[in-house]
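Much of the work behind modern protein science is quiet bookkeeping, done one molecule at a time. Below is the pair of lines this work produces for a single protein:

***
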Amino acid sequence: MINPLQTPFAAIFTNEVLLNLKRVAPYALMIVFCATAVMGWTRGPAMALGWATNSDFYIARTLKGFSFLLGPPIFTAVIMGDPVIRDFRLSIDPLLFSKPINRAQYLFGKFFGNFFVLVCCLAVFPLTLLVLQAFRPPRMVVQQAQVVPYFKHFFFFVVITQLTLAAFYFTIGALTRNSKIVYGLAFCFYPIYVSLMLFLVSPLPLRWKIFFDAFLLSSGPSNNGFGNSAEFLNSNVMSYTPDMIVNRLLLILIAAICLTVLYFRFQTAERSANRENSSLLRLAIASEPVVYYAETFRERLGAQYEMPGLTETVTLPFVTRATKGFRAILNQLMAALDVEFRLVLTERSLLVLMPLAVVLSIFDVAFFRVVPEVSYSVTYATGTANVLLLFLLGITVFFTGEAMHRDRELRIQHVLWVMPVPNNVLLLSKFLATLVLTLFLILLVGFTSIVIQVLRDHTPVDLSAYLGRTA
């Protein structure tokens, strides 16, 4: 009898989980999801409206909002879009397909391994809410502790939706071998989804709204709970109607169709055009980041160095210049910082995370009624700063971790550390690159908030309010 834990599928599944344990992205997502749960618990509408934070209605409402705002499309694409692309980018596909594994074992092992990691990251959100039941701040209504509703609604509202999106992103990434296409589709998700819901689904009866809504935002009490008494909502039990169950079955069917199409369309041989691009500089192990490193170093002034794996000499910075004195160290720092900036700009996730951070930070002040507490500027600055703080935490953790581990993962750390450059230059350049990135995000969000305040005619604008909230 074959042991299911010793099959090729189990080996690939386990390998994907172990690879993700060495990545920064899953841990960064867990921190973001945990912080989101705490912020939603303390700053949500529950206290003001008398809603119990662990009632069945509020648990389901919170998980639906979490699935819509933070589950897709960006974070799902980060985990699910790159597994197959990574093998071909590192040119280890001939080694993998020389092993006794078939196409189904390879694809499904990778998909379910990464989806398992994604679900574990997402599960941090309901687990944090579950633990927060033990705390009872003043004016917060907390009922008797519950456990089952958190897992039940998490599976029904979050996991099934993410399964469909994960299958879609995984299929696109595996067939196109282009992560830019995956992140481009993820970036277009919100505009397409909101447009379809507003212009096509919104005029339909409630039953059809629920049927076509992938996040079931229209399910439950009318108007998302607003307008109902707190007593009614706190005693309300979320029941899954036939329309909601059919909606979930439809999403599972779509996920199965995506994976079926991938199985029949996937080819183990990489396209010839991609082969030509990845063979730039004739690397022994062709990797786009390594190629970019080599090209970046060659552009700088310096001495000649034979980089392992290259058949031609590559120019490295810092070598022929003076290596002692303040001016020399400053020149080295500027050159290293220049390289770090270029590498940050090549991060594919940056094109998605930055616009998403801006949109979600100004979402409340842009689309909802703003009631000034002290002044409009204070209200706008406070509203944007709350969400922005969450993104700053996530971006700082993610890009700092990527910068520190990038050299080791690409196996070029021996090239960097043999150069006559102080350790603090190489480390400080990574820190400053991340710091400048976060400062740019703060300025971008602040400027966007000021523009929205002016467009909504909520003047005058008090810049000191923005500076105070930002600081």
User: Anything to note?
Assistant: The CA atoms of residues 333 and 424 lie 9 Å apart. The chain has two domains: 4-276, 279-470. Strands lie at 304-305, 314-315. The chain has a mean pLDDT of 78.
